[in-house]
Design brief:
Length: 159
């Protein structure tokens, strides 16, 4: 009886709806090779895409573009390829409380990395193949998105 009470009434009250962030999947083509840009997170130093919370006055794609500049020092060369996917992860907030967070991912063709940008010196950043990037990130849905990105990009260009 207690288990049923917990499952049907208490647990749903404690669950929070997912939070929402946007990310920039910056890429470049060097000859026949496609590379994507990953950065390290500030605290745990795990490999991630530049991402952040929505910003007042900016739509999701513009926010992703702003995060690419602030966190990675990149100014994309195009207006963006649009939404290329979504993934979910457990964002650790203050006190290490995990919160389910949905992330919409927008693709941008990147230019050269700038040396002077807001978070310079606080993160590592590296261009790599989508397959290598998929091996370095932790989130399974992001791994799939990165592995599939070359085909996704080709399809977007055709359509």
């Amino acid at each position: 009886m207690l288990a049923k009470l917990w499952i049907n009434f208490v647990a749903p009250l404690l669950r929070r709806p997912p939070r929402y962030q946007v990310a920039a999947l910056c890429y470049r083509e060097t000859g026949p090779a496609l590379e994507v840009l990953l950065i390290t997170s500030l605290e745990t130093k795990r490999w991630i895409l530049p991402k952040g919370w929505p910003k007042s006055g900016l739509d999701a794609e513009a926010t992703a573009l702003e995060e690419a500049w602030e966190e990675a020092g990149i100014r994309p060369t195009d207006g963006g390829q649009g939404l290329v996917g979504r993934y979910r992860y457990a964002k650790r907030l203050r006190g290490s409380v995990p919160v389910r967070t949905d992330v919409d991912v927008y693709a941008f063709e990147g230019a050269a990395l700038q040396d002077d940008y807001p978070e310079a010196g606080r993160r590592e950043r590296r261009w790599m193949s989508p397959a290598e990037a998929a091996e370095l990130v932790e989130e399974d849905q992001l791994k799939s998105l990165l592995r599939d990105f070359p085909a996704t990009l080709r399809a977007m260009r055709r359509g």
